[in-house]
Design brief:
The chain is α+β, with helices and mostly antiparallel strands. The chain is built from six helices and eleven strands. The strands form three sheets. Strands 4-3-2-10-5 form a five-stranded mixed β-sheet, with helices on one face. Strands 6-7-8-9 form a four-stranded mixed β-sheet, with helices on one face. β7 and β8 form a beta hairpin. α4 crosses α5.
């Protein structure tokens, strides 16, 4: 059983929410499954444009990036000196840039770069030019996939971004858990939760381990949320036994009932909570919004 001191996602979800509607920064999100680029500026949803990412045989890299350099006029030395106006390079030779093949926008057609219409590329270029330090480019392959189980490694990012804001970056990892090396991109987030006293590990042989790929169960989720919000010393009121399938007293019961009392999570049907069911990403979204008082980007 996953052991929590008191008792981890797109990275893209938290980049779509903010606890402060005036949060500064530019977030450029590219959804390769939808072939859409979305721009959020200072907490407000500003633009949505069709793009072309890498076609069959060519790959547009997934990940979270900062702009590396901007070139108003550029030509591809690799592909017949093709024009790449308003290029924003984010990963070596990969860039978001204008393309005159506008009829192909909305479907994969590039050699790996992210193509926009020249007019839209010009707008984005001007927007980012003076704000490269607080611009983030997020490229995702499968969209949010709300039916996928939230994993323990993702949960660390979810709750810390929700608590601290979308541009929070934890200190570098040192390698606390044997199954999460310091080089793992999730390690800084997991170790930050450990330092805050929210998690301890999963107690498997050869530890200390974190079991980063395990799903977040509904009982664990209650503790993740409340301990991150309130701090490691937080103790909820004693349980009264409101759910038939959650033993009172129990390891997670006080947290589960407090989550219910705050109208953050209800049961799973009847008088049950289904504490050992995995929590999907789709379910996690409203839990995060309600727990941390997040606001959707928009007018």
């Amino acid at each position: 059983m996953y052991r929590v001191v008191v008792p981890l996602f797109l990275f893209v979800l938290i980049l779509a929410f903010s606890s402060d509607p005036a949060q500064s920064g530019i977030v450029v999100t590219v959804d390769k499954s939808a072939q859409r680029l979305t721009v959020v500026v200072d907490g407000a949803d500003r633009y949505q444009w069709p793009v072309s990412t890498g076609r069959w045989g060519y790959s547009t890299p997934n990940g979270s990036y900062r702009p590396q350099r901007l070139e108003r006029k550029w030509f591809s030395r690799k592909y017949d000196w093709s024009p790449m106006p308003y290029s924003i390079f984010f990963d070596g030779g990969y860039a978001i840039h204008g393309s005159y093949e506008v009829s192909r926008l909305g479907r994969p057609a590039s050699h790996g770069c992210i193509r926009l219409s020249p007019s839209n590329a010009s707008v984005l270029f001007a927007l980012v030019k003076g704000r490269t330090d607080d611009t983030r480019i997020v490229v995702d392959c499968n969209g949010y996939r709300k039916d996928k189980d939230a994993e323990l490694k993702q949960m660390a990012v979810f709750v810390l971004k929700a608590k601290e804001g979308p541009f929070f970056v934890p200190p570098p990892a040192t390698g606390i858990f044997h199954d999460v090396p310091a080089s793992d991109p999730f390690a800084p987030w997991i170790e930050e939760l450990f330092r805050r006293g929210v998690v301890a590990g999963c107690g498997t042989p050869g530890g200390p381990n974190y079991c980063p790929d395990d799903p977040v169960l509904r009982d664990q989720m209650a503790v993740f949320l409340l301990r991150t919000l309130e701090g490691a010393a937080y103790v909820p009121p004693a349980c009264s036994g409101i759910f038939d399938d959650v033993e009172c007293p129990g390891l997670f019961t006080d947290f589960i009932e407090e989550l219910s009392a705050r109208a953050i999570a209800a049961g799973c049907g009847g008088a049950n909570y289904c504490p050992r069911d995995p929590t999907t990403r789709g379910q996690m979204a409203p839990f995060l919004v309600k727990t941390f008082g997040l606001q959707l980007y928009g007018p």
